[in-house]
Amino acid sequence: MEEKLLKALYSIITPAKIEKFERIAAERTKHVTVAVENLYQEHNASAVMRSCDCFGIQDLHIIESDNVFNVNKDIALGAGQWVNDYHYTDKLYPTTNCIQSLKDRGYKIAATTPHTDAYTINTVPIDEPIAFLFGTEQTGLSEKALDLADYYVKIPMVGFTESFNISVSAALTINTIRTRLEAQSDLNWKLSHEEQTKLKIEWCKKIIKNSDNVVKDFMRRIAENE
């Protein structure tokens, strides 16, 4: 059914869009995901989302304990259309809820911190699904996030400054992990065919006017022909 729906949707979008959707979906991953905790500067929030899209990270998890995650369209450059964002807004336990949700889905939790006994982004294990947590601009991750993490991870540095800006840290981390994934031919880290099909359907709906009605009409026609 989903294959037939995608074929129908492809019949009303341009060949250029089809080629782009096919190419990009084939490079997407959920083996690695990103979670951000309580970011308050919208340019950083937007830049993290943009980095996720650029490096093929499909899911972004957003913990909003005190600050609302606002996206600056001039910085995100439309990334919000193509990345799945999940918000955790419970005022009491948003961090716990996010991390537990990720663990329930099989992710190891990697808290980014300049902690002295941390893995580096070059050495942290990536054979299992992994979620990288990034904290607020001034204070980093909360104690709760650090307590619940499976790993501590840091970016190797040789200068006087202790840390990078949050958006730079996220981009460096994602890029390094992406490169490591591509080097491991025995690791099945890309989306399955079924996941890619579902994702491409969602992307089609983003660019088709009155997409809900269009999908309903196509689904009715498909059902009638079966």
UniProtKB/TrEMBL annotation:
<dbReference type="InterPro" id="IPR033671">
    <property type="entry name" value="TrmH"/>
</dbReference>
<protein>
    <recommendedName>
        <fullName>tRNA (guanosine(18)-2'-O)-methyltransferase</fullName>
        <ecNumber>2.1.1.34</ecNumber>
    </recommendedName>
</protein>
<dbReference type="GO" id="GO:0000049">
    <property type="term" value="F:tRNA binding"/>
</dbReference>
<feature type="binding site">
    <location>
        <position position="155"/>
    </location>
    <ligand>
        <name>S-adenosyl-L-methionine</name>
    </ligand>
</feature>
<dbReference type="GO" id="GO:0141100">
    <property type="term" value="F:tRNA (guanine(18)-2'-O)-methyltransferase activity"/>
</dbReference>
<comment type="function">
    <text>Catalyzes the 2'-O methylation of guanosine at position 18 in tRNA.</text>
</comment>
<keyword id="KW-0808">Transferase</keyword>
<feature type="domain" description="tRNA/rRNA methyltransferase SpoU type">
    <location>
        <begin position="32"/>
        <end position="173"/>
    </location>
</feature>
<dbReference type="InterPro" id="IPR001537">
    <property type="entry name" value="SpoU_MeTrfase"/>
</dbReference>
<dbReference type="Pfam" id="PF00588">
    <property type="entry name" value="SpoU_methylase"/>
</dbReference>
<keyword id="KW-0819">tRNA processing</keyword>
<feature type="binding site">
    <location>
        <position position="112"/>
    </location>
    <ligand>
        <name>S-adenosyl-L-methionine</name>
    </ligand>
</feature>
<comment type="similarity">
    <text>Belongs to the class IV-like SAM-binding methyltransferase superfamily. RNA methyltransferase TrmH family.</text>
</comment>
<dbReference type="InterPro" id="IPR029026">
    <property type="entry name" value="tRNA_m1G_MTases_N"/>
</dbReference>
<keyword id="KW-0949">S-adenosyl-L-methionine</keyword>
<keyword id="KW-0820">tRNA-binding</keyword>
<dbReference type="GO" id="GO:0002938">
    <property type="term" value="P:tRNA guanine ribose methylation"/>
</dbReference>
<dbReference type="InterPro" id="IPR029028">
    <property type="entry name" value="Alpha/beta_knot_MTases"/>
</dbReference>
<keyword id="KW-0694">RNA-binding</keyword>
<keyword id="KW-0489">Methyltransferase</keyword>
